[in-house]
Design goal:
Elements lengths: L4 H19 L8 H19 L8 H20 L9 H24 L2 H19 L11 E7 L11 H9 L1 E7 L5 H10 L3 H4 L15 H7 L3 E5 L17 E3 L12 H10 L10 H15 L4 E7 L34 H4 L4 H26 L6 E6 L21 H4 E2 L1 E4 L8 E8 L3 H9 L13 H4 L9 E5 L11 E5 L3 E5 L5 E5 L16 H14 L10 H9 L7
Parallel strand pairs: 1-5, 1-6, 2-9, 3-4, 3-5
Antiparallel strand pairs: 2-7, 2-8, 6-8, 10-11, 11-12, 12-13
Length: about 575
Amino acid sequence: MRPTLSFATALGVAAGLAEVALRASPLRAFDLAQVGQWALLSALCACAVTVPLALSRRCPVVAAGLSGLLVSINYRYELVLNEFVRDPRVWGGMIGTFVLGAAGGWFLSRLLTVRRLLVLAALATIAAVARSTPTRGTPSDLPSVLVVSLDTTRADAVGDKPVWSRLAREGTSFSQAIAAAPITEPSHLAMFTGLAPYKSGIVSNGTDLGEREALVWRALGERGYLTGGFVAGFPLHSKYGWAQGMDAWDDDFGAWPGAESLSIVKLYNQFFVKEHALRERPAHRVIDRAARWLRAHREETFFAFVHFYDAHGPYEAPVRPGAAAADPPTSGAILPLPAYWPARHRAITSVDYLKDAYDDEVAYVDGAMGALLDALGDRLDNTIVVVTADHGESLDEHGYLFDHGDDLYDPSLRVPLVVRYPAAVVAGLVQDCQVSGVDLAPTILDLVGIDDGHARDGLSRVPELRGEACRDTPVVASTTAGRFVANPPVDHALRGAGTKLIAKESGAVEYYELATDPGEMRNLAPGEASKAREELLRLLLRDKAATVGPEMDDATRQALEALGYVEGG
């Protein structure tokens, strides 16, 4: 029996709305308008499949095939995402779910009517709205907290940027802030738990965090804070456990809310999009979601984490208004640029051009920070604003062009750090002592007056923020060049007051006197390194945790390789 166009349309609308209802969650941080956009897109995508069925005389057969295909795709993405395709659980499960889905599609195509489908669509709409209802916070006397992470941003890249300069005038900045790792995931975990990578065991991107009770937003959430995170890069995706303890976690990188979670879009990505999914999003898309959430909840007491990924290579900042796009220079000697950069970028032959492009990326993100501050409105002064970076970037130091992660030199470890909170932070102060990324969590908790009882490596820097003498502390930073193996080798650096020791798992040692050699060009090891090495070993052996290996599935490996976190095979 040939189906009518009305039946095919009703089937598509009902199927699309039902998928949104199943996938809806307050964690997505979608408001009513965004849920409506998502539902509309889902219905249109489903109709694009079902309406052509009206032209077929074999509707049950086609419906069964499509249903089986969509069910098997969802089995792959939802239940066995982190397994290789060759695993019997993957290919066997996909065959089994295809058969079950096809049987269900055949049965439903004969049972449903237009009226029943419309009722189903209405119920799905109600369920989608109800399941998307955001968690609400409450006002309190405690200040809100906004932490902004500028991925891949050097300490010397922000000084001339207008929004950063404003924050530095209105808050306290630290000129010697050192990241705990030159890699996104371990560095962020160190910031938000106060535990260095050698204690947490997380040294590589693509690693499941496991349960992390020391995450700073867990302590704040238990005290009534509404918590939300808005991230721009794949290493901070919720699949690794980053959403734990959060009321909202937005890692939806698509231009249209919810699009990337839809079965038909996943099917399209599987065949037409490299690595089968988006891996990052530009700052303006992060702002679209984060600023909307901040405006909706700024009268409540909240903790918000906003992450910008734009300064990460390759550099593609939007052209500034009024400026003409210039063709990059491609004549001359080929530069040893990162292998993960696309061919059109690796054809660029000017180091100065790429340095300017990197600076444009930082300027673009600086403007995005301004939009975040504007979203707070008159609640800005009652919000602790922290801006820092997970790590820096080597522009040409040590012959390492426009990348990070493989070494422990200062270009990849020195990061910006500023704190603004008029009620407790001195305005315009620059503290020159060495501080660490692990100081972030204890400092935030101290500023809001919360003690969650977790032991942390970091120090609260509240005394420094109030203008007291700055305390120099040694910083242990860690990295791994073998970033996608089960037991990655780990190198460590101990940065002291004017000194730097780098101890590699291979046994190689480097030692630098930073006061006279800030570029780390004259290796004084082994003669001057023994005392620093003893201190490093003492710190590492005291509480060293077992290193956690990253996830090994094909999709994760491909996505991280495309971002430069895995060596290409």
